[in-house]
Amino acid sequence: MRVLVTGGAGYIGSHAVRELINEGHSVTVLDDLSKGHEEAVDPRATLIRGSTANADLLRQRLHADQIEAVMHFAANIEVGESVLDPARYYRNNFVNTLTLLEAMVSAGVKRLVFSSTAAVYGNPEERPIDELHRSHPINPYGRTKMMAELAIEDFCHAYGMSATILRYFNVAGASSDATIGEDHEPESHLIPRILRAARDDSEVKIFGTDYDTADGTCIRDYVHVVDLAQAHVLALGQLREGACQVYNIGSENGFSVREVIAACQRVVGKKLKVIEDLRRPGDPSVLVASSRRIREDLGWRARYPEIRTIVQHAWHWHSTHPLGYRGKIDLVPQENSY
Ligand code: UFG
User: Fold this and answer.
1) In the chain, where are the structural domains located?
2) Of 141, 168, 222, 304, which is the active-site residue?
3) Which of 82, 110, 149, 284 stands the most exposed, by the fewest C-beta atoms within 10 Å?
4) Helix H segments across 108-223?
5) By alpha-carbon position, which residue is closest to atom 18 of ligand 1?
């Protein structure tokens, strides 16, 4: 299939582009490179530098490249920033999604796979969280993604579009050959922050040790970025005509912040300096997915379900790319244990 991937130069988008091409699809990437990296884009894809705000550009590419399906990753993803600057989030995550949907309708492109988030659920009322859980996002980031989901659902019903919405839990890891990986600035996510601390010999902060969990720290469900990318390709191949399907993507295992630090220490082979800090506002104590629906409906299976493998791949990427895409060193890290 000929696929337009918005945000294909970003962390998850770039892994999806590679999987798509490996599966025989042809890919046009649309990315404004505000957060993404040109070097992350598979050289077999066509990269167009531009924004999903540009309706003319969208229509033109959909026609010129005879696009048959869209994967929409382009978005802002920082929960904290969304609280401080909601306008940016409503515009990019919701309004620009609407612009894309309208361009798709006018170009007759009816297939969509959409990048959503567990943040649409808000504070969990049941564990694990399945797709029937109430959507009650507690921050603008989650609300903008929920609004985009609602628009997609309505477009499916009204205009005969077929869409799959994937709600990600905590995505981590890198390609197993460490050629593409996570390079956010600023970096707020736990695993890359621990690995940066390991590399720079700096401190890891635990945000909150008084949660209602066995060791007092928050529990999250980590999924390997390559498994997530493969879920997108599977979803694309199994879109149901005129339907809007929603799937969680997680590993269905919860790890506390302390357990993740321990897993990282085992992989990097040294003890890290850990500081116990205050809670980060807005963090729910436990987020664990039920991914049963995507396993049963689409036959999705995680190739890398182990937290150890997720951390190993992330460490291989971070230790060989200390400056992210701006600088690579030829160091093959040893797998250690202390
Ligand atoms: N944490 C620390 N120290 C750090 C960084 C994070 O203790 O230096 C903690 C956080 O407080 C949280 C856990 O590690 O308890 C995981 O934090 P992340 O920032 O890695 O991930 P989140 O669970 O906050 O965010 C993820 C996605 C978001 C999505 C959210 C859904 O990255 O896009 O889940 O709730 F919105």
Assistant:
1) 2-172+222-249
2) 141
3) 284
4) 140-159, 190-200
5) 189
- Who lines ligand 1 at CB under 6 A? 77, 79, 117-119, 141, 170, 188-190, 193, 205-207, 218, 220, 257, 280, 283, 287
State if pTM tops 0.90: yes
Query: Ligand 1 atom closest to Cα of 139?
Result: 36
In sequence order, what DSSP letters do the residues of 266-311 get, joined into one string? HHHTSPPEEEEEPPPTT--SEE-B--HHHHHHH----S---HHHHH
Share of the chain above pLDDT 90, in %: 94
pLDDT more than 70, % of the chain = 97
User: What is the pLDDT confidence band of residue 170, given thresholds at 50, 70 and 90?
Assistant: very high
**Residue 207 neighbours by CB distance under 10 Å:** 16
**CATH number for the domain formed by residue range(s) 2-172+222-249:** 3.40.50.720
The ligand 1 atom at the shortest distance from the C-alpha of residue 118 is 31
